Amino acid sequence: MTTINDISDLARILQERPEWLSTIRGLVLTEEVLRLPEMMASLTKTVEELARQTAEQFRVVNERLDHLETDVAGLKSDMAEVKADVGGLKTDVADLKTEQARTNRRLGRIENQLGDLRGSILEITAAKQIAPRVIQQMGLYHCDTLVGPGISLAQETINDIRQAELDGTVELGSDQVRWADLVLHGRRSSDNQPVWVVVEASARIDEHDISRARHRADILATVYREDSIAVVVGESIDDRDRIRASDAEVSVITLRPRYRNEEGDDEI
């Protein structure tokens, strides 16, 4: 029979009889402690599975990030192309605007030239076409043309106006009257009184024509102490200038345009 006197006897006996260890463990250790190795193994397996799943998730995420980076790079490239296209469009639009401005300037010059040409035609035809119309509408008779196409202001009249300039009665008189499109001198049928008529002809009547006609008529009225009539003749006048003419007591005579194109626009 084996006698156990102290812990060393127990240790020696367990070394001699190792099969007793499991019995001793069951007596000494609790069930929870005994299950620790099994629990640790299970925990290790769980941790390893979690690590595997996490690694897989990171792999998927990294793949998606790679795709996303590729897509972003593609978008950046596309945006660069779009910006380049927009820059090209801006340049094209700027070129178009520049060309349009040039075209508008050319059209403006052409319109001015046409206006000058039409005004010149009106001046040339003043004596033959405008003068009879003015004489009839103003109710005149015994009219002489003092200024008109091919007719220059007589030296005697120039001298009279220049003398008035020297006297301080009028300013810039002789030159102003000489530059008139048409100057008539006759009598009014209504009272048989002498009257001067100054006509400014223009395709489109504007405030400058009105002002010149009024100023030149006033010069003759002042120099010769006779009534004067200021007249503007043209193919068109807007409402604002018609009011200006009325306020300045300038008569307006509108003529039908000499030619029209197929679309109804006036032509020379």
In short:
The protein has 268 residues and is of the alpha/beta class. Helix content is 64%, strand content 18%. It has a domain at 125-267: Trna Endonuclease, Chain: A, domain 1 (3-Layer(aba) Sandwich).
Helical percentage: 55-70%
Question: How many DSSP helices?
Answer: 9
Count the strands? 7
Unreliable segments of 5+ consecutive residues:
259-268
What's the story with the biggest beta sheet?
A: 5 strands, mixed
- Order of strands across the widest beta sheet? 1-2-3-4-5
The percentage of residues in β strands lies in 15-25%
CATH topology of one domain: Trna Endonuclease, Chain: A, domain 1
Order of helices and strands: HHHHHEHHEEHEHEEE
Task: Examine the secondary-structure arrangement and name the CATH architecture of one domain.
Answer: 3-Layer(aba) Sandwich
Task: Describe the fold and architecture.
The chain is built from 9 helices and 7 strands; from the N terminus they run H-H-H-H-H-E-H-H-E-E-H-E-H-E-E-E. Helix 4 packs across helix 5 (126-138). Residues 259-268 have low confidence and may be disordered. The protein has a domain at 125-267: Trna Endonuclease, Chain: A, domain 1, CATH 3.40.1350.10. It has helices at residues 7-16, 20-28, 31-34, 36-124, 126-138, 155-167, 173-178, 207-224, 239-247, and strands spanning 140-147, 182-188, 194-205, 227-237, 250-254, 259-260, 266-267. With 268 residues, it is α/β, with parallel strands linked by helices. It is 64% helix and 18% strand. It starts with 6 loop residues before the first helix and ends with a strand.
